[in-house]
Queue: 4 jobs
Job 1
Amino acid sequence: MLSQTGIYAIRAMSYIASQQEDEKPLLSRTIAEEMQIPVNFLSKILNRLAQAGLIRSIRGRNGGFVMTRPKSEICVREVVDLFMQLGDHKDCLLGLKKCDGSCGLHHRWSNITEQFDMMLDETTIDKVK
């Protein structure tokens, strides 16, 4: 249900959050190595996260990336929404343009998407390991 970019973004944010105890900026190279994310791809993700204000970039010799808010205040949805159109997963599972909800899959799929939405809204970055 999540795109590869969305998954990488969550992994990058959770790593930055887990390393912020000493508030030392993290190099993108370190994040890429630890989270097994291609460096060039991660660079684009980090730039988007910084544009959204979830992290900030510090330039210079001791530069890198740091969180802008406490990790317990950033929900996973904030991260994923930057990289995906999450409403798409609520469409008809069979791909029908008009779905009247009468098929046997409709209600089961609705329950799954509601649970998925709750998980994104209620899970904060500090809970992702």
Job 2
Amino acid sequence: MNDPNTLRAQLKTCQPGMTGWKAFEDACIATLTYLFVPPLSPPHIQTRSYSGVDRRDAIFPNRNHEGPGNWTHLFKELGARMVPFEFKNYDTSTIGKDEVNQIRNYLTKPMGKLAVLCTNKKPSHAAYIKRNTIFSEDGKVIIFITTDELIEMIAIKERGDDPSNLIMDLVELFYIQHE
């Protein structure tokens, strides 16, 4: 298990852009594993679809189908059986609708209707509009988590609280803001 201070330092020191993409992805996976395994199962990293067309950064299996907890709730509400996480560590490019469409394509029926886009900066307005359209068309929920929010979840866990509460907050905020 990683030390929370080490995870924070790794997240804060990743260079944006191509030079830091791998360090960012590794730091995010280590942080998410620290935060959510268990109750989620360890992630499948860099998995490809059978045809090889899709390559997902990380997929965390959610085997919490019964009982209390946020992951059980998300399984029941959104069929979140396999939760894909994508990592975008951009420098000058914006995180826009193409990045949202990319993760949308990963949400097949067996996966469920919840995906998370972890970013080093806030997505563009177009990204927020696109995820609203995706929810209106398909009922798929895509939430954005910034580096600052990952660091906040580390603090939540250190206090002895459930970091998945922030995931629930972001899903509920998405529902409130959806139009």
Job 3
Amino acid sequence: MALSRQDIARSGLKLLNEVGLNGLTLRLIAADLGVKAPALYWHLKNKQELLDEMATQMYRDSAEERATPASLGEWDVVAHRARALRRMMLAYRDGGKVFSGTYLADLSLVGEHPLRRSIEAGLDEGRASRATFTVYCFVIGYVIEEQAVRPMPGEFDERYRETAGEAVLGDADVRFEDGLAMVLSGVRGWLETPGQPGSGTPV
């Protein structure tokens, strides 16, 4: 059987919903693919490379959902991509943890900067990237916390019932939208404020 890195990643994603991140091993994936574990090491050196490939496959599979109409305003594009990123991670048990801190193994998946028009109009690209990266980090962090309480749709970790308040137990979609609005408002204000580090304006 001729294996590819994508075959291994897809098997890992399938098993992720069954065993979670802690239970996922290259040996388990090898058994799912009907090969011996050493066969996988021709493609992946360790579990981190496996996670990098799985995260890349998640991102590749969600490309169509992240696509945005050209008519959308720049910040609407940022918000759209943030929501799509959350849905992508929520499709898998521990999806937030898998995606967090991984290396995108296929750089062709890196799309156009959502603030490209503003950058072309004079916005410092470094500041623009810092702003969008902050939104990206919020989404990943939110999903990791969200999945700690609700690992999969319909599941709930009862330990949180007595110790957590409405900020954790309330409607996850509403809380995400509130948080996204706060972060977007903050980064837009930061970009518009002169004298910030990286702005090119003396403090």
Job 4
Amino acid sequence: MTDRSAYIDKMKAKVDEWNAEIDKIQAKAKEANADARSKYEEQLDEMRKQRDEAQAKMKEAQEASDGAWEDMRKGFESAWDSISNAFQNAMNRFR
């Protein structure tokens, strides 16, 4: 397994984890009253946006040539950390 494929596998696992968190919060939102449901939906939208951004970055990593991957790697890692932190912040608002 190359360094890139290991990195992509790690990204996929994290996105899967985020999808599970989104599903849990979505279930809570359905049971909440109207005011709370609105706040849940707002946070869910933010979490979905971050997840979608992560999936786009993952696709870029998958499609990059080997030479481009080496050049792009640091940028991907920085972007991934930023997306991950934003998702975590949105998720923490529910705890």
